[in-house]
Amino acid sequence: MSVSSLAPQNSLEVASIVRDAAARRQAIEIIGGGSKRALGRPTDAAITVDVSGLSGVTLYEPAELVVSARAGTPLQHVTDLLAQQGQMLPFEPADYRPLLASTGEPTIGGMVATNLSGPRRLHVGACRDAIIGCKFVNGRGEEIVSGGRVMKNVTGYDIGRAMAGAYGTLGVLTEITFKVLPRAHATLTLVYEGLSCDRAVALMSAAVASPFEVTAAAHIAEGNHARTCLRLEGFDASITYRAGRLIEDLAEYGQPQRLDTAPSQVLWREIGEARSIIGPADHVVWRLQLPPSRSAALVNSLRAMMDVSVLYDWAGGLVWLSHAAGDDMTAVRTAAKAGGGHATLIRAGEALRRRVAPFEPQATAVEKLARGLKQAFDPAGILNPGRMYAGI
Amino acid sequence: MTQIAMPQPDPLILAKRERIIAGLQERVPAQWVITEEDERRPYETDALTAYRRLPLAVVLPGSTEEVAAILSFLSRERVKIIPRGAGTSLSGGALPQEDAVVVGVGRLNKVLDVDFANRTARVQSGITNLAVTTHISPDGFFYAPDPSSQLACTIAGNIAMNSGGAHCLKYGVTTNNILGVRMVLLDGTIVDFGGETFDQPGYDWLSLIIGSEGQFGIVTEATLRILRAAEGARPCLLGFDKVEDAGACVAAIIASGIIPVAIEYMDQTAIRICEDFAHAGYPLDVAAMLIVEVEGADAEIDVLLTHIEKVAREHGARIVKVSKSEAESAAIWKGRKSAFGATGRIADYLCMDGTIPTGQLPYVLNRIGEIVAHHRLRVANVFHAGDGNLHPLILFNANDDDELERAEQAGNEILELCVEVGGCLTGEHGVGIEKRDLMEKQFTSVDLDQQIRVKLLFDPDWLLNPAKVFPLNLHPLPLGRAA
Fold it and tell me: For the FAD-binding PCMH-type domain, which residue ranges apply (chain A) (predicted)?
C-alpha cells in the first residue's frame, strides 16, 4: 500500500481531507513534527496528514495567564515566547527525543495528544489540567470547538480536555488554549544521596505531605550513588525558609546538598527526559503509574526477576523503568496492575509494539465504552486507527 | 410567567406510577422510597427556586448496588431519572419533572478511606464538600475546591457541575482534583474510571464525566486528591475609587509573577450588603474592593503582601488593609462567602456565572450596569477576579412576575455579553435549565451535536437528567443529524 502525504495549512483544509478520507474509509495517520511517532501501536494508514503547517501562537495574554497555539506550532516556540514574559506551561513538558532516539520538532499538538507531563505534574497537574480550550476536526470532517480562552468554564461537556491523551484517535487537533503560570523567581533543589528506594520513597512522601510546597520530587536510582531530589520554587526568602524547615523535619534522611537555580534547571530537565534510564537502544522502556507508596516494593519485586534501570518521579507516582527486550514482557504490567497502577510501554521496536499492547488493557465495560466513544467522534474509524488499542 | 420551558409530562409514565413505586420498593427498603406529596415537596426545586416541579417519586439508595438496581429498573421502564446531591444547584441542575424519579445520593455520605501517604481520600459521593475537609483537617490536609455552598453541597453535585470556588485560581476546579470515580451506568453496570494514580490509561473519562451534569450516570464513590494545607493564609483588602483601577490591579498582580490563592472582587452594592451582614470591616466608601489572599509561613506572607500592597498602590488603591488576626481573616471571608445569603435577605436575586477574559473587566462591568438599569433593576457584583468568573446578582422581587421576567432577560443579556467578549456562559455553576437555551450563543449546532453524541453513548433515550444542558429542540438528534 502506498502512503500519500498531505500537508494542510489550516483547519478548513484538515476538515476537507478528513471528510474525503471518511467517505472513502481511508485511514489517516496524523503527524506533527513526528518526534513521538514511535509511541503507541503502529498505525497502518493510507494517508499521512502532516499538521505542522498549522503553526503559530494565535493569542497570548500574559496578564490573563492564557496562551493559544495552533497544533503544529513547535513546542519550543511556545516555551520561548512564554519565557520572554517570565511564564511557562505549568506541567513542564519534556523533550523525549533522546529517549525515543527520534528526530523532528516536538509540537503542541503532539504534546496534547500524548498527555505526557514532566516533573511539575506532581504539584500543578498534567497537560490535560492546563487545557482550557480546544479546536479539532472530528472523524466526520467537522470543525469542533470546546472550551474557550477563560480559566473557568463549565459550559457544555469538557470534550476538549478529553482530546488529551487520545493519541489523535478522536480528532485532529488544530488549536489548543492553555492556562500558563509565572516562572519561579528562583529554584533550589535538595539532593539526598545514597538512599535505598524504600527510604527514598518514604522521604519524598514525607516531603510532599509537608506544608512546604515541594514542586517536584524524584529519585535517580542509577549511577554510582542514588540521588533523591526535592525541588522548591519561589521567592528567595520563601525557598530559604522552606528548605530550612524541610531539612530539619527530614533530618533522619541525612544532610542534603543544595543546588541553586541554574544546576537545578539542568537536573530537572534531565529527570523529565528520563536520561538516567535511557540505556542501550535495544532495551525497552516503560512508564508506570502507581500509588506512590507502593512503587518501591514493586520495583524490588521486579529486580528479583530481571535487571532493570529505574527512575522515580512524582514522589514515586511515576516510575520509568527499562530492561532488555528479551526479558519477560508480561512481568512489568502484571506487577503494576497488582500494585494498583498501570504501565505504558513507551519505547520498543515496531514488531514488539504490534505484539505487546503498549497501553494498559482496559476493563471490559470501559473497553466497550471506549469503542462507543470512538464511534461518537470518528464513526468511520479513520483517525489513527489502532494507535491506542486494536480496533479503536 | 417564567421563560424557561419544561417538557410536558409523559402520560404513559404518570399512568404507571403505582407500578414504578412498587418496583422501587422491591429494590430499596420502603422507608427510602418517598411517595407522599408533602414529603416529595422538598425535592421539587433546587437553589434556582423560581422553578418547581413535583417529582413522581424520590428514592434514597443506601449503596452503589441499590443505585444500580434502581437505574436498571427505571431505564427498563423508560422512566426519567433526576440525580440529586444536596439540591444546591443555582442553575436548576437538579430540577425534577412530574414524570421523573429523583435519585438522591445523600445517604451515601461516608469517608471510605484516607491515604495520607498517597494524598488521596476515597469517599461516597453524597458526602458534603466541607465534611471531606473537616475529616482530614486534623491531619493538616484539605480538599481544594470550595464552592460557597460547601457546607451543604455534595461531592456528587460538585462532580456533576465541575464546581469551583474562591480558591481555584491556585488549586484548580473539581476536574483537577479527582483521581477516580465509581459510576453506575443507566443499565445498572458499575464501572470504575481512573483510580489512585495521577493519570489514567486510555481515554480521559474523568474529563467527560466531571461536568456532565448527571447526564452520563450516577457517581456513587470518588477518589479525591487531597493536599497538605499551607502553614498559614492571610487576606488583605484593597479599596479603589475606580472600578477600572481594581481591574488593572488584578492584571498587574498576576503579571508580576504572583498567583494568590484567591482574588475576589466586590462592587459597592455588594460591599454594603455583605458588611451589613458580616461586619468584616469592609470600606463602604469605595467603588470596588479586592480581597487578595496569599499562603505560606508568616515571613513568606509578609513578603507577598508587601509586594501586593506596592502593586496595588501603583494602581490607585486608596485603602490597603491587611488582616492582623485569624478573627479578622475569618470575618473578611465570612463577608465574601455570605454574599449570596446576605443578598437574599434584602431581595430575591438571580446569580449569574459567566466568565470573561479579565482584560475585559472594566468594559463588562460598565455594560452590566447599563443592561440592568435598562431593565429597571439593581445589581450587586461579586466575583472571582483572578479567573474572570463573574457573579452579578440581579436583585428583583419574586412576587412580581414582570420583575422576574425582566431579571431573566437582563441575565440573558449579561451572559450573551460574556460570550461576546470571548468568555463563556457559565464558569462553575453549570448550564442546567438556566443557560440551556443560550447554548447556541456559544456553540454551533455542529459543536453541540458532538457533545450530544457523547451523551447518547451513555444515555441514548435521554432519560438521565433530561431537559438540561441542551436546548430542547436539539434532543433527540433530529433526522439528518443521525448519530
Answer: 1-183
